[in-house]
Structure formats: C-alpha cells, structure tokens
Write a structure and sequence with these properties.
Blueprint lengths: L1 H14 L2 H4 L7 H22 L10 H25 L5 H22 L5 H7 L9 H18 L5 H17 L14 H18 L4 H15 L23 H10 L5 H15 E3 L4 E3 L18 E2 L2 E2 H13 L3 H14 L2 E2 L2 E2 H11 L4 H10 L17 H34 L1
Antiparallel strand pairs: 1-2, 3-4, 5-6
C-alpha cells in the first residue's frame, strides 16, 4: 500500500510546487539529493573495492560509461546545489554541505581511478590520456573542475591542468577542431561538452582557450548541419560533415552546454530542436529521437527506449536543455512525467534503480542523471513559465497510485475490522 501512496504524494507535491513552474528548484530537490548522495556513497565504495570496472567488457557501453558519467553528473549537480544554498543557513543546509564534501571526494576517486578507464585503454592504448579519446578526457576535466569548486581541494590540480591544456591544444590544432570519442566515432554533442569543460577549467587555472569557442561553433554551423539546421548526431572528424541525421538525444545534450559557448547559436538551435523534435498530445509531452521529417525507429544505447517516437534520453536531457534556455513550458511537463513514471519510493526511484542495477550494477546513477537535468542553471534572459495542467499520462498514473493505495487501505481496514469483531465475540 505504501509503495502506491508514496509516489502519489510525491507526484502531487511536485505538481503543486510553484517553484517548478517558474524554473526554481523543486522543494523535494534537497531531500532527494541527500538521499541519493548516501546511496551513491555506498555504490561508489563497492565499485572501487570490488574492482567492478576491470570485469566489464569494453563494448558494454552502459557498464563502462555510466559509472564515470554518473560520478561527473553527481559533481555537477553538487556544484549547482551548493550554489543554490550558499546564502542559506539551517541544520539541513549544513548537513548537505558536509555531505557534498564527503561524497565529492568519493566521486573524484571513481573518476580518476585508472581502473575506471580500462575500456578506453583497450580502445586507445597507452596514449589514452594524451591523444584523442575525447569523451573520457572531457569527463575528467568537467568532473575535476566541479570537484575543485565544491571542495576547494586542489589535489587533482595537476591532472586538471594537464588534461585541459593538452585537450585544448589538440582540439585547436585539429583540422575541424573535432576529435573522436572512440576510433572512427565523432559526436558534436561530446565536443561541445569538451570545449565547455575546458572553458570552465580556465576559470580555475587562469588559462585561456576562449578562441576555441568561436572556432568550434563556426565549424559546426558551416559544415555539420542537417536539413533541420542542427548538427548531425555523428560527423566526420576531419571535415565535420554529418554522417547521419540529427537526433533528439544529441540535440538535447548539445543544448545543455552550447549556451556557455555561444548563446546566439544556442537560441537558434533550440528553436529548430523545438520545431522538429518537440511532440505533445493529450497524454504525453517530450522530445522525439528522430525529427518529424524522418520515419523509422532510431533506437540504441544512446537514445534509450523510444516509445511512440518519444526518446527517453532526448526527453530527459531535454529537461536540462529547456531549463538552460529558460523554457519551463517544455521542461515542466517532462519533469511531471518523470516524477510519476520513475515510481518514487523512500528508497529511491524504482524504475531508474532497476535499470541502473541491470546496466551498471548501480541503483542510484539513473536518479543522479535526473537530478543533474533538473538542476541545470538557467542561462537565457527570457523565461517562459509553464501554465498547463500536466500531460494526461501524469494524471492517469498518479490516480492509479492513489486509487490503488485507497483500495489496499480499505481492504486492510476491512480485514482488521473483521478480526477485531471476531476477537470481541470470543
């Protein structure tokens, strides 16, 4: 009964939270982040102690990428949470601040542990920290920048400096300012994240890679755009020409960080993303994996499950992209769906927990990704609040939880009443 009543309460709590519609952090963010931090600590310690990374096949994308991806997401989320609470004073705030410090140390250990990068060593060999391998090196820079910001600890400063300057130099000297993630695989989404991470690190290191911002954006605008006016999901490293269509998961990912490089391009690309990838009906709202111009199913480990055209990753990252661009009319309905479809419990969100446990032996990394998207900083000057009543699926599922809980509670009450009558007669 409680597993039905609790998600109903949480779902309605988010729906009636005024902060949500106006782009502020939902009121449940801090307790949820606190709960998830404790569970992340337990997972990370086990991950390190068991050497789980050494046993994962290098072709297992979820098993190899999620641990470092999730740990970086944790640090980025912690950075935003800490910024949000820095001027507040309460026992809860002090507790969360201390929790961030402790958990950030563990997250940094996961990110920098050589065993965590076993899969990229197999792909790139001994040069995995000095040549190409953009995805992994980008995560090192992004994670360690956030780590230093939230803790003030400079113990990884040398690694941060070495990766920032070497990757920045390599991108600047590359023919199209692009580098492969894996041999033969170049994704504009990850290159945008990489340059954004380098610019973030510049603020800590005193280095200057500002020229790289405009050079990358110019190349992407000139060569990589598809018919929708958006970068192709995968492109040729040397020419930047698209090797496939634009996809929702890639667009949403790009739009979370491209505002840090060029807000004009971000605004234009978001409008195109909204025009060709936003989908809404009486029951669902979210971003498509393939644009309205393309038929067929584009579904893989990057997209996550695609249902009725809606991409789960496109929509999840779409929350972060829409928040960054001040479009709460887009982020809020997806957040409402996420809150109800994730099946929240006091022990974590059931559906992401099950998916994470199966994919990467973790029950918390899916929730960390959700928190990451829901706490992206708003960078647009113009903001659009949400004034709708929520997707129909939100009301159907939240009502199912509530009615189910009432039915079970009524049945339990009937059983106890019958038992008490029996005891009174005896």
């Amino acid at each position: 009964m409680f597993l039905l009543l609790y998600p109903a309460i949480i779902s309605f709590k988010i729906y009636f939270d005024k902060n949500v519609r106006n782009g502020e952090f939902p009121k449940i963010t801090l307790p949820w982040f606190k709960n998830t931090s404790h569970r992340y600590q337990k997972w990370a310690k086990k991950y390190m102690e068991t050497g789980f990374a050494s046993s994962v096949d290098s072709e297992d994308v979820a098993g190899t990428e999620w641990p470092i991806f999730g740990s970086v997401f944790y640090l980025l989320t912690a950075e935003e949470i800490q910024s949000h609470i820095k001027d507040k004073d309460s026992c809860q705030i002090k507790e969360i601040t201390l929790l961030i410090q402790k958990t950030a140390d563990i997250a940094a250990d996961v990110i920098t542990d050589p065993k965590t990068g076993n899969w990229v060593k197999e792909k790139w060999g001994s040069s995995y920290l000095t040549k190409k391998n953009l995805f992994y090196r980008m995560l090192l820079i992004m994670g360690l920048s956030s780590y230093e910001k939230v803790t003030g600890n400079k113990r990884y400063r040398k690694m941060l400096y070495d990766q920032t300057t070497s990757l920045g130099r390599e991108l600047l000297n590359a023919p199209s300012h692009l580098l492969d993630d894996y041999p033969g695989e170049c994704y504009p989404n990850d290159v945008v994240w990489a340059v954004a991470s380098i610019i973030r690190a510049d603020k800590l290191l005193g280095t200057d890679h500002s020229a790289l911002k405009s050079k990358l954006i110019d190349v992407l605008k000139k060569y990589s755009l598809t018919n929708e006016g958006l970068p192709g999901f995968i492109v040729d490293e040397k020419t930047a020409r698209p090797l496939g269509i634009a996809r929702g998961c890639g667009n949403s990912g790009i739009l979370m960080f491209v505002p840090e490089l060029d807000m004009i391009s971000a605004d234009k690309w978001f409008k195109m993303h909204d025009k060709y990838f936003w989908q809404e009906d009486r029951f669902f709202a979210g971003y498509r994996e393939a644009s309205i111009k393309h038929n067929g199913l584009y579904e893989d480990v990057d997209s996550g499950p695609v249902l009725f055209g809606y991409g789960t990753v496109a929509s999840a990252f779409g929350v972060g992209a829409a928040r960054t661009m001040g479009r709460f009319d887009r982020s809020v309905p997806i957040m409402l769906e996420a809150s109800v479809f994730s099946w929240p419990t006091p022990f974590g969100c059931l559906i992401p927990s099950l998916m994470g446990s199966k994919a990467a032996d973790s029950s918390c990394l899916g929730e960390i990704a959700m928190l990451f998207c829901m706490t992206r900083p708003v960078m647009a000057e113009k903001k659009t609040s949400y004034k709708g009543n929520g997707p129909g699926s939100f009301w159907i599922l939240s009502s199912f939880y509530l009615i189910g809980a009432i039915v079970l509670l009524s049945e339990e009450f009937r059983i106890w009443r019958k038992l008490i009558k029996k005891l009174n007669r005896s």
